[in-house]
């Protein structure tokens, strides 16, 4: 089979892969059980770094494995093939008064990808991560063994698969609970933040708002460090159950690298902070609240041909304020700031996933256009600050984490190593563990 170049959402590298897109689960099974080069399942490729890459190996792309197996509208439960996207699932369940209990910042992810990365959303403090709402997983091992995983059946393998980066075998289907909604709209408020301290004060006063997140101007310095906007929301009781529409703004252009510099980023941040209706209360559809970036297809192209990195770390609460200040000061001093700087609190992890990223603390996400070695050095400095504070880096967003940082942030990683299907591997796993497969 010819080798195909394929990249991740960050578009940093385009390694060659042997790509297979099976239309049915039984065809996928024939791929999984045939010996060959290291194998990795991949959904829609929205991971930023290299957890969805398997250079010179096989990629089993699951986007055609997207069928609903059953839907219980009375109990709010669904079982579907792992290639079903949140986009398609929401189109089915929203008009019937249901929503996914946890969603990341894009609806263009598959159920299998959401499980493998144990994604989290704006309601982690109240709802935990995605895996907390998954009851069963259908897993096929390369030996041909087909297993049902749950908290009661094959429990250790279930815990290794939640957040297990797709390394324990091929996730065939996912069974999960849904969340009831009375309308497809949320009551929202947007409040100005003067600095990092005010973020923590407003967050503490927002406990009765299930969805919270803040945008931060990461190029601000001095007394303005941490200024931005704090956004919070709760489901409305009225307003209809209309589903989201396709992306509104079409296909993003690929910008020249010189466009993204400190001057243009400062201008964008100032305009974003001061735009009309940036502050205040309103009722809005779920789509712009949960998925603002989905309005522009392939927005990752805005970072240019060289792509972009993302740093996302979570810092334990006792040292979160001081560490966030250090992370933002380091970023501002380098002048390589981000249009997309997101700050929020995370609560107790409830999924039981061994490699699950969330833990009680504050998480900061920053995007950086790839400007070569200077950007990598900055990413490593940020990762070192977070790790030294007892934090960890999010594998789904990472492209620079060292093995020492990985072991520090995920001390139980050997449990996943022991449960890993020997036929499965990824560029990320080889990078942070030294495992050749």
TrEMBL record:
PROSITE patterns documented for this protein: FAD_PCMH
Pfam family, one: FAD_binding_4
Entry keyword set: FAD, Flavoprotein
InterPro entries in alphabetical order: FAD-bd_PCMH (IPR016166), FAD-bd_PCMH-like_sf (IPR036318), FAD-bd_PCMH_sub2 (IPR016169), FAD_lactone_oxidase-like (IPR010031), Oxid_FAD_bind_N (IPR006094)
Protein name as catalogued: FAD-dependent oxidoreductase
Protein source organism: Rhodoplanes azumiensis
UniProt domain FAD-binding PCMH-type: residue ranges: 12-181
């Amino acid at each position: 089979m010819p080798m195909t170049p394929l990249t991740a959402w960050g578009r940093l590298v385009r390694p060659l892969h042997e790509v297979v897109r099976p239309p049915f689960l039984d065809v996928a099974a024939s791929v999984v059980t045939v010996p060959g080069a290291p194998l990795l399942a991949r959904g829609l490729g929205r991971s930023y770094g290299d957890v969805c890459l398997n250079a010179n190996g096989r990629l089993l792309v699951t986007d055609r494995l997207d069928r609903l197996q059953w839907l219980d509208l009375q109990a709010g439960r669904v079982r579907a093939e792992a290639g079903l996207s949140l986009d398609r699932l929401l189109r089915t369940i929203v008009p019937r008064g249901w929503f996914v209990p946890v969603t990341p910042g894009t609806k263009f992810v598959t159920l299998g990808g959401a499980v493998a990365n144990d994604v989290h959303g704006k309601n982690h403090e109240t709802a935990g991560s995605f895996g907390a709402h998954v009851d069963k997983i259908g897993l096929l091992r390369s030996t041909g063994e087909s297993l049902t995983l749950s908290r009661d059946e094959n429990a250790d393998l279930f815990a290794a698969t939640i957040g297990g980066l797709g390394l324990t075998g091929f996730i065939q289907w996912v069974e999960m609970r849904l969340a009831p909604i009375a309308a497809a709209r949320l009551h929202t408020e947007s409040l100005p933040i003067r600095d990092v301290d005010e973020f923590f004060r407003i967050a503490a006063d927002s406990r009765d708002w299930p969805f919270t997140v803040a945008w931060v101007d990461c190029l601000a310095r001095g007394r303005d460090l941490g200024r931005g906007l704090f956004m919070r929301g709760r489901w409305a009781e009225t307003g209809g159950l209309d589903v989201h529409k396709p992306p509104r703004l079409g296909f993003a252009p690929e910008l020249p690298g010189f466009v993204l510099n400190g001057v243009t980023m400062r201008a964008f941040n100032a305009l974003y902070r001061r735009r009309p209706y940036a502050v205040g209360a309103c009722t809005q559809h779920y789509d712009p609240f949960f998925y603002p970036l989905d309005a522009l297809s392939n927005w990752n192209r805005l970072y240019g041909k060289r792509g972009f990195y993302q740093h996302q770390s979570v810092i334990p609460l006792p040292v979160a304020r001081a560490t966030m200040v250090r992370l933002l000061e380091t970023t501002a001093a380098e002048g390589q700031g981000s249009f997309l700087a997101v700050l929020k609190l995370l609560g107790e992890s409830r999924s039981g996933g061994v490699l699950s990223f969330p833990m009680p603390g504050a998480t900061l996400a920053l995007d950086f256009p790839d400007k070569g070695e200077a950007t990598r050095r900055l990413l490593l400095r940020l990762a070192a600050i977070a790790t030294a504070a007892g934090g960890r880096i999010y594998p789904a967003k990472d492209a620079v984490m060292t093995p020492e940082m990985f072991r520090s942030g995920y001390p139980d990683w050997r449990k996943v190593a022991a449960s890993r299907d020997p036929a499965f591997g990824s560029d990320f796993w080889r990078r942070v563990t030294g495992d050749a497969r």
